[in-house]
Specification:
Elements: E1 4-5, E2 28-35, E3 39-47, H1 58-62, E4 65-67, E5 70-74, E6 80-83, H2 85-98, H3 106-119, E7 131-140, E8 153-162, E9 173-178, H4 195-210, E10 215-219, E11 227-230, E12 234-239, E13 242-245, H5 256-267, E14 272-274, H6 279-287, E15 291-298, E16 302-311, E17 314-317, H7 325-338, E18 349-351
Parallel strand pairs: 1-3, 9-10, 9-16, 13-14
Antiparallel strand pairs: 2-3, 2-8, 4-7, 5-6, 5-7, 6-18, 7-8, 10-11, 12-13, 12-15, 15-16, 16-17
Length: about 350
């Protein structure tokens, strides 16, 4: 596939410290367009710049859009590698199908991400804990105020040098169970990475912060009995002799880091189980002193340990209230693979070139 490259004439300064998350953007972006008679066509790397949209573009009115988030890392050997772009490509295609966007071929997704990182490889940070975040996005552009799938689309890829996702870094966070509001429901968009899911999560997340918690623990839409995701991350709970993560039942996103953690746990011979997990079961484990660890997993934070869980009018301390050994071990393992400091026995890392 030929990708045209048009480099900027005005490169930006590249900071190495105080990166934060998603506030600084690299020099270039990928753009590709879709039309019914041509399909996806004309992939190119061009200078990062604002885009122009018609006020009646379908995405602005009916939220027909999908996105992904993955990372590239600079190893100790100087090689730049992306973490599992093939899995992100497959999930992007699945999300596209659900909201009636023509899927971007998976090999095209991977190659456009790789090419952009190659062009902006100097933007890949060298500091510990930092990475180049990659954000692919596809959205409806047809100017039309009718409720049907758009006929035209745009695909973009942007990159951003990032530090830790949470201001706390790898310090454990406090989360609160959400009993009323819903992030996603069975039959909805919960298993896809769409902006609508994130818009639905904002109100409860803001309320949680006002109560002194970092995020919410979502429960099922029907009964609010079963736990699902934690904030925008997949959930793992170590209780009793099991490590449980909620099953992918249509309301939960199939996280790439989630899959990585499951593979690592199985490789260790640890009893990881994918199933429904009731809040009452977590309560019973806590009361018996068998609630060892809770942590979230996701591209942005990798592993986010939980120190306390707000449940109705109670606050439960998880384990010893600090970073648990399992969360620490998994975080260290994944980061070591991403940094080229440990053997990539699962074939997760893709060299950029």
């Amino acid at each position: 596939m030929q990708i045209e490259v048009r480099r900027t004439n005005a490169p930006r300064p590249r900071p190495e410290s105080e990166l934060g998350f998603g506030r600084i953007f690299a020099d270039h972006m990928v753009r590709m367009d879709y039309a019914p008679e041509r399909g996806w066509h004309s992939p190119r790397v061009e200078p990062y710049a604002p885009i122009q949209l018609d006020p009646t573009a379908a995405v602005l009115h009916y939220a027909q859009a999908i996105f992904e988030g993955l990372k590239a890392f600079r190893g100790k050997d100087g090689q730049v590698r992306m973490f599992r772009p093939d899995r992100h490509a497959a999930r992007f295609a699945k999300s596209a199908e659900r909201v009636c966007i023509p899927p971007v071929p998976e090999d095209v997704f991977v190659e456009t991400c790789r090419k952009l990182v190659e062009v902006d490889r100097d933007w890949v940070p060298t500091a510990d804990g930092a990475a180049l975040y990659i954000r692919p996005l596809a959205f409806a552009t047809e100017p039309f105020l009718g409720v049907r799938p758009s006929l035209s689309y745009t695909y973009l890829v942007m990159t951003s040098p990032v530090g830790a996702y949470y201001a706390e870094g790898f310090a454990p966070v406090r989360i609160v169970v959400e009993r009323r509001e819903v992030r996603a429901a069975h039959g909805g968009l919960g298993s896809c990475k769409t902006p609508a899911n994130y818009a639905a999560s904002l109100h409860a997340a803001q309320a949680a912060k006002k109560k002194g918690f970092s995020q919410v623990l979502w429960t099922d839409a029907a009964e609010h009995r079963y736990v699902e995701e934690v904030g925008t991350m997949n959930l793992f709970v170590h209780l009793g002799d099991e490590i449980v993560t909620p099953a992918l039942d249509g309301a939960i996103l199939a996280g790439v880091t989630r899959d990585s953690v499951i593979q690592l746990l199985k490789a260790k011979g640890l009893p990881v189980v994918e199933r429904r997990l009731a809040l009452d079961e977590i309560r019973a484990a806590h009361d018996k002193g068998q609630l060892h660890e809770i942590f979230g997993t996701g591209t942005a934070a990798v592993v986010s340990p939980v120190s306390a869980l707000g449940v109705d009018d109670e606050v439960w301390t998880i384990g010893k209230g600090d970073v648990g050994p399992l969360a620490r071990s998994l975080f260290d393992q994944i980061v070591a693979i991403q940094r080229g400091q440990a053997e990539d026995r699962f074939g997760w890392m893709f060299p950029v070139g």
